[in-house]
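Cross-check.
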Amino acid sequence: MRVADEVFVRSVGSFLPPATPTEQAVEGGRYARQDLEAFGLTGTLIAGDLPPAEMTLAAARVALDRGGLESADLTHILHTSVLPPGPDGWSLPGHTLLNLGGGTASVTELRTGCAGMLSAFELAVGQMTGFRRAENVLVTAADNFGPWLDRWPADVFIPSDAASAALLSRTDGFARVLAIGSATDPELEEMQRGDQPLYPPSRDGRRIDLQGRHASFGDRVMPEAEAAKRMSALHTELVQQSLAEAGLGTSDVARLLYHNMAGFVLDQFFLGPLGLDLDRSGWEFGRTVGHMGGSDQIVALEHLVLTGAVAPGDHILLCGAAAGFASSCVVLRILELPEWGRPS
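Predicted model, tokenized:
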């Protein structure tokens, strides 16, 4: 979908807990050295007992401060988490609005997995360009995976705790949203479910066995290689369509920011089919901080701005995927280097 109206990214922010080197886990016998060498993932972020709500507030405050706005200026807050961020039936974005200083913004909480931030972008842009004409929308993401996932699996990503925030505006910003696309391949829905029952919800305190679910899907539905090809094809088609709607081609892409995972997976399934290589991704940074759920792309964008790795006129793609199996893509054009991203 081409975004004909002007919608800008006014600012972004993040909260990143302390980093733990993968080498430390190898030395402690929690991670295999051959996995470190094969996947190239050198670190992750661990928040301990810090609630996602507190991480969200920290990231949101940074975004609002950089954007020069207060919570009373917000029209809407959209929050996304991969896994439950607090008490059942409770509103994290409501908590965010209260602790940012209050106001009358409406709040919505999404549970659309690791592509949640990009889903929030899509909904926010709809609110800003549709009948509501929302002026300023804050989108946030946060997860603390400690209670939910094995921190050191033999897998192509390492779970990482973090929060991110992006402030979208109809007036101005350092980047403009040119197009947004999303699509789903429901044949892959069971990949994240495995043989788990549909009811009752899992609340037994055990960690989620993602690898077991993937193995069950592979045994009963389709081989892992076939599923990977389908995911790659969906991603490739979506990116090409989104670029075309923005009037661009892959040669115009300065960076494609995907989830933080093993380099060979990014190269073979998500960059290579588009004719891009790892140098035009966020992998060199992402491999040091782990897979942060819905925050990977915004944290990577913030890193590019803060390190001066983007320039006016650059086109940045924020791409992701989630259970469903769903893919999302946001096409941005960098308009200027914001004050908070300029060397002092």
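The two ends are 38 Å apart (CA to CA). The mean pLDDT is 93. Passed to J.P. for a second look.
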